[in-house]
Amino acid sequence: MATDFSAKECIEQDDPEEKSLAVAAMDLVYSRAERSIALLDSALDPKTHLPALSALYEWGRFRYKTPNLIWSNEELNVWSQSEQIISLLETVSGERWNTRAWVLQEAFSAGENMFLLFNKLSGSRVNPESVARTDLSISEIAINMDDFALCIDWAEELFTQHPPRSAAEMIPSIENFAQDNKERISNLFKTLKVQFIRPRLTDASSSKYRFGHPKRSCNAGAALSFLRYRENLIVSDKVFIFANLCDYDYRLDMAEVERRGYPLSACFLALSILNADYSLLIPEVYDTGNNNFTFEGHYYELTKDLSLKLY
């Protein structure tokens, strides 16, 4: 039976006990879903943005197959569409979707079945040979999130280096673009590193298979790094998201936690140790600089921004 799920509509909002149980199990919903869709505000133009993004995707795949190749016509094609690619990525980097804490667990749990759904800037048809999935939507543009994340990585690899002289000689505007937009490009990819989610499946140990789909997860240190840049003002939500990102088997009774007034940082630490995840105890997790490492001080620095938003 095919069904659509929306958390706001499908979870009883007026029943605290039911809502708590349902929210804690949201990772199961997304890991079991055949397709998970992120509805974005950004609009793609099938005539300009999509061909440029598809050229970047094809170049990345080509480079992966031929890593020792210094220069190619595919790379020249991407450079010739650099402004369209950078402007598109700038639009995506400003998406509110990238700031929501719940999106983290949705993307992790859905894995390779998460798709970004963009508006179409014009009524033009989407080329079936593009990076977009034309079989998933007629009125919008659907792109697999893993494929889009790869495009970001490949764009950073390409545009943060100086274009080869041969390319600049063939298309003079390429060198001008690289020089005039050096700071713009650098700032863009710094932002995307923080904002855009990359829950990659790197090896079998980082996932569990649920209903045939690999469910991605991370350790506590990585989860807190993600959450520092996400918006959510509800303590229980952040604890649920944290546990779901790490795919923990043992959870906390959030009703009791809130009744006793335990701080958020204590919940994270208790959860991680309870589930034999000791990543928060490793000094390398923290940016120690030139200071001597102390767990209390550096753990406070890692979690203070999360706590200050809540108390």
Describe the fold and architecture.
With 311 residues, the chain is mainly alpha-helical. It has two domains: 36-195, no CATH class; 219-311, no CATH class. Helix content is 52%, strand content 9%. The chain contains 16 helices and five strands. Strands 1-2-3 form a three-stranded mixed sheet. The protein has a two-stranded antiparallel ribbon with strand order 4-5. Strand 4 (207-210) and strand 5 form a beta hairpin. Helix 12 crosses helix 13 (235-246). It is elongated, with a radius of gyration of 22 Å.
Q: Could you give the distance between the termini?
A: 44 Å
The domain tally reads 2
User: What overall form do the CA principal axes indicate?
Assistant: elongated
Helix content: 40-55%
> What is the alpha-carbon Rg in Å?
22 Å
Main pleated sheet: 3 strands, mixed
| Count of helix runs | 16
Mean pLDDT rating: 77
What letter string, H or E per element, gives the SSE order?
A: HHHEHHHHEEHHHHEEHHHHH
Structural class: mainly alpha
Low-confidence stretches: 201-207, 307-311
Strand content: 5-15%
Question: Could you give the order of strands across the largest sheet?
Answer: 1-2-3
The beta-strand count equals 5
What can be said about this structure in brief?
The chain is mainly α. The chain contains 16 helices and 5 strands.
Topology:
Elements: H1 7-10, H2 16-24, H3 26-32, E1 36-44, H4 49-65, H5 73-79, H6 82-93, H7 101-110, E2 114-120, E3 141-144, H8 145-159, H9 165-170, H10 172-180, H11 182-195, E4 207-210, E5 213-216, H12 220-227, H13 235-246, H14 254-260, H15 264-274, H16 295-308
Parallel strand pairs: 1-2
Antiparallel strand pairs: 2-3, 4-5
